[in-house]
Design brief:
Length: 102
């Protein structure tokens, strides 16, 4: 890794830099933000499930599984039209980070 990341795993947040790693247990909420220009290697379980939080107008939210064709670890959706375009996913990430500081 080059650079620094602020990473949240569960309810713990810390800054990591070169030579450090973060391990994320299965089924654990996590997020990160880049503090400095960074190169990061990510190792993950293949065909893992990816979720986004969908927030409703009434303030409630739920988790929705997403499928991204360009992500080699993404599972295959039940139907071909079940893929989420990368641009849509990036917009969801940006919206989440705007509403949730790390």
């Amino acid at each position: 890794m080059r650079g620094r990341l602020r990473i949240r795993v569960g309810d713990q947040t810390r800054v990591i830099g070169p030579g450090e790693i973060a391990c994320i247990p299965p089924h654990t909420d996590h997020a990160f933000s880049v503090l400095d220009e960074a190169d990061v290697e990510v190792f993950g379980e293949q065909r893992m499930v990816e979720f986004v939080t969908v927030r409703h107008a009434d303030g409630t939210d739920h988790e929705k599984e997403i499928f991204v064709r360009e992500f080699p670890w993404s599972r295959v959706p039940p139907t071909e039209d079940g893929y989420t375009p990368v641009a849509d996913l990036l917009a969801r990430y940006a919206e989440w980070h705007a509403a949730n500081t790390l």
